[in-house]
Design goal:
The chain has about 500 residues and is of the alpha/beta class. The protein is about 30% helix and about 25% strand. It is globular. Bound molecules: malonyl-coenzyme A (MLC) and adenosine monophosphate.
């Protein structure tokens, strides 16, 4: 009778008064206190009639209690579906409905809006605030501090993470217990994490990076996290002297480098800085080394696959590369047209296979077949090559994707909203280099008749799309550049507007 993920990440800490979460109010939650909280939440899930395989959607601020909901789901075999706080009701409606969530956990401030959605879908609704109060916690206090662990196999689903796509429709990536566990086991070893480690945790916990990489690796190692609600360079610097490691998106590193307090001394206690989710400029890598004497370790992953490659812990961390395939992960670069493997050094699409690769997209068998080959290789849509030393380089994207501050934005989603507005003939959304976010979306709009009302476009985006997806600029153009086949040449547009966000403007 087992539950592999619970048995590896959580059960070993039962009864242990070791520090787990250092909070910014100066308090520390021990592993045991955390697990007792999680068990009480698990009791609520039982009482509300959730059973293994049901989905729980959660859109709340980052807090120890939010992480405890994840632990409770693992213990009860309930599929955990965390959602970005920035999502609008329109976006939430889709996720709740599409996943068939049986329970939704939301911030008290959003309860009224979300109750309209759950009334329609039939989901139950409870609240959890940033301070760890709300109806979920009220119910949890009445529950015992230990609870039954539900049997699961490694092949059972543990989480759904929604990722957008080139068609503009989000897909629920189904991740099994084994996907998550195998990856955290590999990463713990590869990056030499132990119970002595203290991780600066400023990432959100609704994505792979902050939840499955950072939190799972720390749970497996038995170390502690300095658990911050959001990134702030000041707070990172304040707590760095008692931390050993940090994980972040490139924006974390450029913001730290912009801070004059970030010096060699400030970083002296740290043994490892890890970056991922978006490309780290070689320039950032070099500036970081010059400032601190340390090399950022860059790795590469995705929602569908967890982590695929990493620069080495010992050995050269090569700027501009994402390192080697992780143990157990097979990686090949293929011809996008034929799918055949290309010789070393040639540029093609990166495909990966291994225990880390997801099971498919929820209720989208056709989409799954398009991206996940029958032989188990997943077509990432990233363009890459392998250098003569075996390091993987990501040289671009075959998929039309913008990554802003580590958040993915699919242009199609924005174009659909803009094209629907009066006075718009068509639009093309492109990613333009941005000094803080790496890339930012810019909309190029072709007018129809009297032309569009820009305020109306902005308002339509605000209703339909999370703030981080909003175009930072809208450009009116008489016609979009097209090739002879009639396909919009986004590369030409990206080239025309590449200097739009200068450092001073951002
Ligand atoms: C916030 N805003 C963003 C944004 N984050 N806009 C564009 N891109 C972003 N990433 C908006 C806000 O809505 C706000 O709008 C304004 O920008 C400033 O808000 P803020 O609160 O000051 O932002 P800040 O807290 O500074 O957030 C920036 C950030 C954050 C980079 C720290 O976005 C972040 O933590 N990103 C990490 C994302 C992540 O975890 N990705 C991993 C995905 S997993 P207004 O209204 O004020 O203009 C994955 C797999 C893998 O990719 O390999 O890891
Ligand atoms: P997501 O769907 O949010 O998981 O984002 C995954 C995508 O982020 C990948 O397909 C890559 O395009 C990108 N990504 C992740 N890590 C890196 C990295 N180190 N360098 C470049 N791109 C990255």
């Amino acid at each position: 009778m087992t539950n592999p993920l619970y048995d590896a990440l959580f059960a070993p800490h039962l009864g242990k008064a070791t520090p787990f979460l250092h909070l910014l109010d100066g308090t520390t939650l021990t592993h045991d206190a955390f697990l007792r909280k999680a068990a009480q939440i698990g009791g609520v899930l039982d009482a509300m009639g959730l059973v293994a395989g049901d989905r729980l959607a959660l859109q709340v601020e980052k807090s120890p209690e939010a992480l405890a909901v994840y632990a409770a789901c693992v213990q009860k075999g309930v599929i955990f579906l965390p959602l970005n706080m920035a999502y609008t009701p329109v976006e939430l409606d889709y996720f709740i409905d599409n996943s068939g969530a049986k329970l939704v956990v939301c911030d008290p401030a959003k309860e009224d809006g979300i109750s309209e959605i759950t009334a329609r879908t039939g989901a139950q609704l409870v609240t959890l605030s940033a301070q760890g109060s709300g109806s979920l916690i009220e119910a949890a206090t009445a529950q015992p501090e230990t609870t039954h662990t539900v049997d699961r196999s490694g092949d059972d689903l543990a989480a759904f993470l929604y990722t957008s796509g080139t068609t503009g429709r989000s897909k629920g990536a189904m991740l099994t217990q084994d996907n998550l566990l195998s990856n955290s086991e590999v990463l713990k070893e590869y990056w030499a994490f132990t119970s002595e480690d203290v991780l600066l945790h400023a990432l959100p916990i609704f994505h792979t990076h902050g939840l499955f990489v950072a939190s799972n690796v720390m749970l497996l190692s038995g170390g502690a996290m300095i658990f911050m609600r959001a990134f702030s360079a000041d707070a990172m610097l304040e707590h760095m002297p008692r931390a050993t490691t940090m994980m972040g998106v490139p924006t974390f590193y450029t913001r730290l480098l912009d801070h004059e307090g970030f010096t060699r001394e400030a970083a002296a206690h740290m043994r490892l800085f890890i970056s991922g989710s978006a490309p780290l400029l070689a320039e950032t890598h070099e500036l970081f080394e010059a400032r601190t004497g340390q090399h950022i370790l860059e790795r590469y992953g995705m929602t569908e696959t967890n982590m695929n490659t990493s620069n080495p812990y010992e050995g050269t961390r090569k700027a501009g590369t994402v390192g080697f395939p992780l143990p157990g992960v097979e990686l090949k670069v293929t011809n996008p047209e034929t799918g055949t493997a290309l010789p070393q050094g040639e540029i093609g699409v990166i495909e990966v296979r291994g225990p880390n690769v997801f099971k498919g997209y929820w209720q989208m068998p056709a989409k799954t077949r398009e991206e996940l080959r029958e032989d188990g290789f997943f077509i990432t849509g990233d363009l890459g090559q392998i250098d003569s030393d075996g390091y993987v380089q990501i040289v671009g994207r075959g998929k039309d994707l913008i990554i802003s501050g580590g958040y993915n934005i699919y242009p199609k989603e924005i174009e659909i909203v803009i094209d629907d507005q009066p006075g718009v003939k068509e639009s093309a959304v492109i990613g333009v280099p941005h000094p803080d976010f790496g890339e930012s979306p810019v909309a190029v709009v072709v007018p129809d008749g009297a032309g569009p009302d820009l305020e109306q476009i902005t308002n339509a985006c605000a209703t339909a799309l999370a703030r981080f997806k909003h175009p930072r600029k809208i450009i009116i153009l008489a016609a979009l550049p097209r090739n002879t086949m009639g396909k919009v040449q986004k590369n030409a547009l990206r080239d025309d507007y590449k200097d739009m966000f200068s450092k001073s403007e951002s």
